[in-house]
Amino acid sequence: MQTLWFVLVAFMLTAYVVLDGFDLGAGAIHLLVGRTDAERRTVLRSIGPVWDGNEVWLIAAGGTLYFAFPALYASSFSGFYLPLNIVLWLLMLRAVGIEFRMHIGSPVWHGFFDGAFSLSSALLPVFFGAALGNVVRGVPLRPDGTFFAPLWTDFRVGTDNGILDWFTVLCGVLALVALMVHGSAWVAYKTEGTVQLRARKIASSLFAPLLLLAASVLSAALRVRPHLLDNYTRHRLGGALVPAAAAVSFAALWFFSRRRKDRAAFLASCSFLVSLLAGVALALYPRVLPASTADAYSLTIYNTASGDYSLRYGVYWWSFGMLVAIAYFVLVYRMFRGKVRLDPGDHGY
Amino acid sequence: MDPAAYLLHRLHFAFTITFHYLFPQLTMGLAPLIVVLQTLALLRKDALYGEAARFWAKVFGLNFVLGVVTGIPMEFQFGTNWSRFSRLTGGVIGQPLVMEGVFSFFLESAFLGLFLFGEKRLGPRLHWLSGVLVALGSWLSGYFIVAANAWMQHPVAYARLPDGSFQVTSFLGVLLNPWAVLEYVHTMSGAVITGSFAMAALGAFYLLSDSHRGHAVLFVRLGVIAGLIASVLQVFPTGDLHAKYLARHQPVTTAAMEGLFHSEVGAPLVLLGQPDPEKGTIENPIVVNDLLSFLIYGTTRAEVKGLDAYPKEDWPDNIPLLYFAYHIMAGLGTLFVALMAVCVFLLFRGRLYESRPALWALMLAFPFPYIANTAGWLTAELGRQPWVVHGLLRTKDGYSNLVSSGSIWFTLLGYMGMYTVLGLSFVLLVQRQILEGPSPHRPAQASAAARAA
């Protein structure tokens, strides 16, 4: 039962990264692909009707974590107190950036909110990547399963970690580049003309850095946590599938974007992100927050989960609710399918 | 226990939730009124209703953004600032919180975009449906949050595990907690009061400034009728039933709210006066004899237990604030009924739109529902102290003990600064929408658009 909920939470977080990932990525490249007001409005309009729904996956994942693994939720959220609050501020800034922009037709107003939106969209992936880096590296858990980590200490990986050290910052940069590629693929898929050309160019110029970063994060992770791949040798099938899926999706991403098949390239990018995150989940299981102090203090799905009744009956209403939610998503994405166009006289983004 | 951190964690939550709830109360209050306008637009084929609905949808949209933005931290604050509470209660409280995400946030976020920007694409009927679904989402969301709060006020359907944590024993038990039902209807009618007062106030403003007359008349009419219904429901039966239930299950809270320090047969209702918890008296009281006994038990001779019947460590820790919050809420609630009754009377006599004093009163009344709703939540939350889960977990055992008070200061000040900027931008943007108004002829905007092009 705990394993099932581990999979469900991982599913929600993955859905969040894939969905909100493209609008974060689009935000991060916003100022690069859109130079004129009309171009920037085109970018915003490609994500405008869906970004809020995408972000709900984060809220729902946070809630699900609270419900299914309360001890993990409590320990990690209070331990990551400072970065988490900074993430919340960035999320606010970003929401305001995209939603307030349209209300006043002044270049200064637009410029301010474009900047705020783009800056927060670029910083958020760095924080999310660093957060995942912290989970991979482990945090200084005490015997009672709690900790408090400062933002940084000496940037070295040890037992006295800050949130940011060279390893987690590297993870953050990887996340930013991966989502910039993802966002560019989305913008290329949803737009036409100059914006589309620029988005394709950004994506293709980032492929090599992305590959390099992914390889260096992997080798760094193996140095930081030598037992990281234990699960891969134990479960040979999954252990072979996940890296293969990542490699195939990356190749497909490269291939399709060279062929200007934007839709296929975007889907390949989705599958690339899914396989990276699945790789992390497989490496961690059954740990959910490893300890850098002593492995016995690590938080696992077993010592953090809710009671049996909650988990067992939760599956029913949770699955029902998620099926309905997925139906909404299909509906909304169908409603706003096709290329984005700016019609004169439209209100909105 | 670190007293500074304890106080700061409470202040942190109080500040962020109070600011947050300024927005959802208008969202939830306006949503049904917009649905009424949309329905009238469909039925009566008069452009006026459609324009009115579109105008309020714009205000709703802005307000909704602020609600979302200030709501995100709430979902995470249980973990960041109240980790010991979360670890123990996640198995119960987590349930309504996930349900809110899964059942209402996805619904709202999916249909809000369609509702705000999809009118042309959807056609009138589907657009009406999207409005109904957004309203439904916001009201569902309210229920789940109230259910979470109600469990903290009145824990039901739980079991305690050996490690001290709480687990659900019945999902429906938590959702259908009688306290949740009472608290919900009281909260929602409070939200409709905010929404209808805002609508009436704007209509009154337009009438007094002699602009948008057609829409203004509609706003005032819908506002005062909905306002009267909601204000009456707020007092009776929802407030009355809630107070009786409270008196039965948290009698010490009732005693503190009413400023009743000593148990009395035929307890008086204190209308005005300042409680002095040190001396155990009310200074400068104006009271109605026997009324409190009557209100709670239906007979003037019933005994109401005072604070002296309970150990001091179980008293709410800030009795004067609780007492004043409660009296402000109840006093304003009474005034709302009176104001709306007069306005509806004038409306049916056909004199409301010309009565300048009534219009001035309506216009100036709109901030007060915000105050009353805030005071009501203060009453609920201060009244539950010193418990975070009533009778089971004390607030001082719930906060994140590893977060230093310096960190809390940092984020608290951060939120204060952030919210000041957000609040000012919100006022600026709403003010522009109000000046632009609901009329189809918008020379100001047309020229702005021409400049931008």
Order of strands in the sheet with most strands of chain B: 1-2
- Structural class of the helix and strand makeup of chain A? mainly alpha
* Most extensive protein-chain contact, per-chain counts: A-B, 67 and 70 residues
Lateral strand order in the biggest sheet of chain A: 1-2
Secondary-structure-derived class of chain B: mainly alpha
Q: What is the alpha-carbon Rg of chain B in Å?
A: 23 Å
**Domain count of chain A:** 1
The sequence of SSEs of chain A as H and E is: HHHHHHHHHHHHEEHH
Count of individual domains of chain B: 1
Helix content of chain A: over 70%
CATH topology of chain A: Formate dehydrogenase/DMSO reductase fold
Percent of residues in beta strands of chain B: 5-15%
Number of E-type strands of chain B:
8
Unreliable runs of chain A, pLDDT <50, ≥5 residues?
none
CATH architecture designation of chain A:
Up-down Bundle
Span from first to last CA of chain A? 44 Å
Overall shape of chain B: globular
Looking at CATH, the homologous superfamily of chain A is: Formate dehydrogenase/DMSO reductase domain
Query: What oligomerization state is this entry in?
Result: heterodimer
Low-confidence stretches of chain B: 441-453
